[in-house]
Amino acid sequence: MSYDFEFGLFNIDDFLDEGDDNHLGDYPLLPLRDTVVFPHMVAPLSVGRDRSLKAVEAATNNDNLIVVVGQRDPEIQEPGLDDLHDIGVEMVVGRILRLPDGSTNILGQGRRRVKILGVSQTQPYIRAQIQPLQESKKVTLGTEALMRAVLSLFEKVVHLSRSLPEDAYVAAMNLSEPGQLADLLASLLDLDFQKRQELLEILDPTARLQRLSILLANELDVLELESSIHTKVQKEVDRSQREYFLREQMRAIQSELGEIDIQTAEVQEMEDKLDSVDMPDYVLARAKKELARLKAMPPAAPEVGIIRTYLDWLVELPWTKATADNLSIGEVAKALDANHHGLPKAKERILEYMAVRKLAGEKPITRSPILCFAGPPGTGKTSLGRSIAEALGREFVRVSLGGIRDEAEIRGHRRTYIGAMPGRIIQTMRTAGTINPLFMLDEIDKVGADFRGDPSAALLEVLDPEQNFEFSDHYLDLPYDLSKVMFITTANILDPIPPALRDRMEVIEFPGYIEEEKLAIARKFLIPRQLSENGLGRQEHQLLFSDKALRTMIRDYTYEAGVRNLEREIANVCRKVARRVAEDKPAPRQVTVQSLGKYLGPPHFLRDEEDRVDEIGLALGIAWTEAGGDLLPVEVTLMDGKGGLMLTGQLGEVMQESGQAALSYTRSHAHELNIDGVDFDKLDIHIHVPEGAIPKDGPSAGITMATALISALIERPVHRDVAMTGEITLRGRVLPIGGLREKVLAAHRAGLKTVLLPKQNQKDMVEIPKRVKRDLTFVFVERMEEVLPVALLPEGNPERVLEGAGLRPISSRPN
Ligand code: ADP
Hints:
Layout: H1 12-15, E1 25-32, E2 42-47, H2 50-59, E3 65-70, E4 87-98, E5 104-121, E6 127-132, H3 141-160, H4 166-173, H5 178-188, H6 193-201, H7 205-257, H8 262-276, H9 281-296, H10 303-316, H11 329-339, H12 344-360, E7 370-374, H13 381-392, E8 396-400, H14 407-411, H15 424-432, E9 438-442, H16 455-463, E10 471-472, E11 479-480, E12 486-491, H17 499-504, E13 505-509, H18 515-533, E14 544-545, H19 547-557, H20 564-582, E15 590-591, H21 593-600, E16 618-625, E17 628-640, E18 645-648, H22 653-668, E19 683-688, H23 702-714, E20 722-724, E21 727-728, E22 734-735, H24 740-749, E23 754-758, H25 770-775, E24 777-781, H26 784-791
Parallel strand pairs: 1-3, 7-12, 7-13, 8-9, 9-12, 14-15, 16-20, 18-19, 20-23, 23-24
Antiparallel strand pairs: 1-6, 2-5, 3-4, 4-5, 5-6, 10-11, 16-17, 17-19, 21-22
Helix pairs in contact: 3-4, 3-7, 5-7, 8-9, 9-10, 11-12, 11-13, 18-19, 18-20, 19-21, 22-23
Bound molecules: adenosine-5'-diphosphate.
Adenosine-5'-diphosphate binds at residues 340-343, 377-383, 521, 525, 562-564, 567.
């Protein structure tokens, strides 16, 4: 019988002398690292280890017989008996091939299973005592059936497998012994070492065949899966090739018939659009060039999408389309008044702007500055902008610049980037749809803050009338004319705006409102609007807000310079009432102070006027913040120590310096202050500015810090109703401050009675509403010495010191 289909090298009959001797024997042993040789199978083995080479040599003196047996761990270099499996195979060594690189290959054929009983020597090679193992050759009916089943499985495997030749099946078919069949298949299948050794160790042929049938079934599953994946991939490849050929054919047919394909249709559509929109010649030329590129491209090219999007932008951006301005100044003035209470400065400036436009006619006005509406949130900046646009008949668009990090956000990314887009300016122009909208750039004060690169340079180009007629966007890559746009910027505070930008802008202040103004705005605008927005506009559902209720809302439910939260609270009430109306429940017709709690819950802000006490070491300053003005308490504590000064409360550098100046002033005036006895070197001073974790800076808390410090040192309380603001010099001069109106309004809102201000700010008092002047007492000071008698209570005399100090309050007299 011949099994040489695998190697075609030699015939089994040349070697195999299936002796019947079942006696114990003593054989050279060849340990195998990761192969298993099965009885009757021909196997090439590479031999490298010294002892193994010697064992092969010894085999030539032993009828060419050797025992091969698997190692339990393939890594072991010199295995002992314990490192070897118990069952191995007696093998006839056929050929020995010494290769030029020094290694040796042998070709052998397995004879029969043997059991390793022991080792008689380990050097110079291993000799082992073995016991040949008999196996039953009996074929029962059941074994016969099993053999057929296994053969049929094997046939399928051979069919699907790419490595097994058809001959393998023929060889298997011709075997009649179950054990041999199992051994042949075990050696042919792609099994790992463990599984092979397992099969070798199953001595009962039927059991071995059973195990093999399971392994075959597994193999078949894997092969079927592989094959189905392969088929799918093949199908996909075929399909796309087919599509490609079909498309090519379709093109050919269409061109024969004089028809056009989809892409040509799109190109045609784009061409029509280009003809219909009005664009400058240079834009049209660029568009045509891109279109020509598009035409020349195969439809599946990745660039097709990019070019198409670009062309869409060119077509949809407004290039020449403009709205006609309504330049009737009277009408615009009326419209502005109808929508907004107060704001005289802003309204006046807008009318002037229009007048200039009207006189200039078609000529561009190169020197006209950009307006900047500056003021706390909710003071009507945006809504006035919207009204101006409406009155002029222009489109209104806005872009928030807050948090902009990158020049690319303004100017866009070059088209070479994936997913590139134009910057916000061009995007917004597309939304506007005309080249002369009113364009609001919100929060211009928040740009410089966290900027990487330089957005303000790009903004400069946007806002500068001498440059913005050819604004360059990276994506567009064509100059775009922004000169017809009316830009208005908004800001909460002016300080953070980069100077170059600020120079271009004319600032119009939107001051915070006082209670009376808020009341009027609520009555005239906010309430009617919220009523109608919440379905309460009709007469039968009208809802009245009492004056008192509105004032309580302003005082206890909102704490703001503008009216944004007030509007929110009004909307809140309206919604709750609207719901009752909708549910057919009895709805109130009046909102009173008593019913407020029901709609809005407990007051959000408790005015602490009543709780305020005259305290030692605590003075009230006033600060100018983004949200308008706010109280800024300053606390001072003294402790035994070593002359240290600690300033806490998130203070900026300037504010820290103010604290030091206040201390130096105090020390140098120890005599006048009657604190000669204080040894500053044995004292630690802690100045703390509480109120949230808001960063605070600026010099204007100077006199407040000095007052709190002196109060602590001379142990005289600061009057609870006095607020103050002013920079202090080392010599005790009080210097002017900014944001006077917001600061004074904050003191007013907080219900204070007296405000100490630098003398040099007296001229700014024109900004203060009359009502506030009536309610507050203003004391203007030039020196720190004038502050103390007003701010501090006299020793042992709880009366106000104002009169005692011989000072008369300078109050509501207009300057
Ligand atoms: P800002 O842009 O200054 O933050 P908004 O323009 O958004 O403020 O104003 C907030 C709300 O207050 C808007 O509904 C606006 O109509 C209203 N409002 C503010 N000031 C006035 C005013 N003087 N007259 C009428 N409504 C005002």
